[in-house]
Design brief:
The complex is a heterodimer of chains A (about 170) and B (about 200).
Chain A lengths: L3 E2 L1 E8 L6 E4 L8 E8 L8 E5 L7 E8 L4 E9 L2 E2 L12 E7 L9 E9 L3 E9 L8 E5 L9 E7 L3
Antiparallel strand pairs in A: 2-13, 3-12, 4-9, 4-13, 5-8, 5-12, 6-7, 6-11, 9-10, 10-11
Chain B lengths: L12 E2 L14 E8 L7 E4 L8 E8 L11 E5 L7 E9 L36 E8 L8 E10 L4 E10 L8 E5 L10 E7 L2
Antiparallel strand pairs in B: 2-11, 3-10, 4-7, 4-11, 5-10, 6-9, 7-8, 8-9
Classes of the chains: A mainly beta (about 170), B mainly beta (about 200).
Amino acid sequence: MAAGMTYFPIATNTLGSATSSVTFSSISGSYTDLSIVINSGSTASGQDIRCRFNSDTGSNYSFTYLTGNGSAASSNRATSQTFMPLDYNGYLSGSIATTTIINCMNYSNSTTYKTILGRFSTTAFGTDAAVGLWRSTSAITSIEFLTSASTFLAGSTFTLYGIAAA
Amino acid sequence: MPLITTLANASTRGYGGLRAGAVSFDSEFESIATVTVGSGGQSTVTFSSIPSGFTHLQIRGILRNTAGTAGSLDLFMNFNSDTSTNYRAYKQIGGTGSGGGFAAASGTSTAATNKIAPAAFADDGNTASIYNGWICDILDYRNTNKYKVTRTLTGQDFNGSGAIRFFSGLWMSTSAITSIDLTVEGGNNFKQYTQFALYGIKG
């Protein structure tokens, strides 16, 4: 079996000022999976973090999660959304204290719908694990991150990795 | 894992965009082999002759099977062709999208069994084109003094049903893992486009 270099940082964005959305565009199809690591906060506490693929604003996103807030665990889902929710209790606080890790599995194929696996946590509110679905067979070429009703704090970091396979 | 130095007062900083031009910061996470299931389906996916030059293994993939049972079949995993009752204590916690997380407090476990079952996954009884996401870590796989432990995060969402799950598994053997077999419960096939990619992680 041949071994080779595999885990590539594609781009990173550290916000110099409060920003309403962050976009990774022109994503190469040369990898097998994408991994995005975000450390962020919002100017108004309690905001959700969301994403869209390929600028798709149709009702093509859904999400199932397991969450805990320090006293109880629960599970729920969101269906036919116009964005991919990326938290439940792991939402944004007024400081940069939320960690969001997303794995976009087999993102560049043009045959299957796209499934993501995510982990989201904020010490102030709770932690989540989730699976998300984008009902599209298009290869993912851009990802936009946005908040529910606020802006990301200056200093928030967004890093995109590509994971290649043999 | 690669580390990134971020920039203050910067907008997006690209590292090449195209894979060929990207900067690879290290080689601690390496691709070993990938299997993509073809049009006829496939009953078993095997990674053999796994090199010993790493500390941990990770398998990442998307998976679906050809049964029509709507998500009730398990993925099975065996090491080194061992099908004896040397596996046990798989547990899962997770959520199916309503109420409390199922088994969130205690999980479930098995007595000694003949395989690890680190997923219940999408099949042809579910909406077409939807595959599980699946990430499995096999820790300290070449150590000849310890039993081997796996951990898995997997999920499937069908826009109205589905689940997110964690699993752990144990292989009660001190042998270094040199091969991995992946099969579907009940002798069913993996669906076309199912893909498993095996990576080695250096310590």
